[in-house]
Amino acid sequence: MPLPDGGSTAWPPEHCEAINQQIATWAAWYAGDPAQLAAIYAGDGATNPAGRDFFGSETGRAKGAARRVFDRVRRWFWGNRSASGQPSNRLHVPIAGDIAAASADLLFSEPPTLTVPTTSSNDTGIGGNPTQARLDELFDDGAHATLLEAAEIAAALGGVFLRVCWDAATVPDRPWIAAVHPDAAVPEWSFNRLTAVTFWRVIKTDKRKVVRHLERHEPGKVLHGVYEGTDDELGMPVPFAAYPETAWLVDERRLVNGNEIPTGLAGLAAVYVPNMRPNRVWKDTPHAAPLGRSDYAGVEALMDGLDLTYSSWMRDVELGKARLIVPTEYMTSHGKGQGASVDLDREVYEGVRVMGDDEGRLDIKEVQFDIRVDEHQRTIADLKTTVVSTAGYSAATFGLDTEGTAQTATEVAAKHRRSLITRDRKTKYFGPGVVDLAVALLGIDVEMFGTKGVTAQRPVIAWPDGVSEDPKEVAERVELWARGEAASTETRVREIHPDWDDPKVAGEVQRIRDESGMVDAEQAMTDALRQGKGALNDDGPPDGPSDAE
């Protein structure tokens, strides 16, 4: 289907409203901005439309289910409004950001390996597989950082889109990949398969209009459109040359039908990667069911309670400051109608002539509240552990396990078992997405840049181990094997470099032998046997007596 005609068309489309509202809530936790959280949960539409639209307002605009949701979250810490005239002392703990970052690190701290199967058509026999070489080159060009970014977005917002980008004016010799937030896309599904997606961005906004650039991905082509509208309506299409952000499309030589760029692909130049499924929030919404669920789904109330506890602790710190109750006679007057104050930093007060009690003096009382450190600390530790556990991770992954003794890889894996299980589940979704993206990347490289000898083949993805052993432990183990002659040089090399292929291992073994002067044990034994046999065939030892003597 083509791009929207524009006019009074609602944008984003109405069926995306509930989805984007939920994503806005997760995004507020991910951003860690107290103002966004207050706007979302207090329904402050003046500062955040998401709060107004999702929760309504306290004046009664919210009705039915929306009103019940707002009444519930208003009782949360971030749903309460500060009393008039009172400064906000709310403190936010950015554990949501830590969870998203930990998820990305578990998945892509080391990049996966993409291997193109070798066939007679792609293996030259001299320079190897050109498709494999080009794929390695394309993925070495910042793709690892993009995948880390995408994994963090997916953990926070429930999923992420990855698309292939190309612009000869920016990067003249290759395409690249970019991550897109799910609330900046309008996907279309066939069952749970992505069949088309429209990415959009705001390129200009002012009091009168909002200018949007729409980029629609369909099988075999990408369509572009620029629209001038309002906050809620898409508006009318305008020429690409009207704005510098889209002027490059005017000179796009492959542009056909006014707004289409053929890609030469059988599928899309974009993929959707869900964080994890099923999404319990939208189980009854067909157009949203294929979307993934956030790591924060179901733990929002726990994170709200964590912020409440930390804020309570800081309130105790504030109230724990020593205060003096000073008689008004000790205060410095600022003039009629201007009030009075006392300098609390003044250590010694001079005598004053005042009317006092029977003994002729006035009392200064000291007030200092206790700071409940232990109670808050235990509550916070328990809330943190519960939050990360409910999100699918081990406490040790976030340093909540305070044991500092050295541990073997097996012990580390046992303590991180929950996190490793979650990582394994997420690789089941990211793996096919990265493979599809690699196919699209190779196809665009051939179609748009004319790279020779490359075909858009499906590679095989291999994930590295989730727990890496301490290099010192590996070295000590290999040294013991060598000292006890319990393993060959090849076995020791493979133990240290498990990711190396046979040619690399063979080359390293040969270099070790050359540097250490080692010879093949079997060859040495053969030479010794040959020398012994030759000595027996001689007439006798040169210095020993013969049988005749």
Number of strands: 16
Main beta-sheet annotation: 7 strands, antiparallel
Distance between the termini: 110 Å
Structural class: alpha+beta
Q: Count the domains.
A: 3
Count up the helices: 15
Mean pLDDT: 80
Helix-residue proportion: 25-40%
- What is the global morphology? flat
Sequence-ordered SSE layout with sheet pairings:
Blueprint: E1 7-10, H1 17-31, H2 34-41, H3 49-55, H4 64-73, H5 95-108, E2 113-115, H6 130-140, H7 143-157, E3 159-165, E4 176-180, E5 185-190, E6 193-205, E7 210-218, E8 221-229, E9 233-238, E10 260-262, E11 270-274, H8 300-319, E12 323-325, E13 332-333, E14 340-341, E15 365-367, H9 373-390, H10 409-415, H11 417-449, E16 460-462, H12 471-483, H13 489-496, H14 502-516, H15 521-536
Which features does this protein show?
3 domains; seven-stranded antiparallel beta sheet; 549 residues; alpha+beta
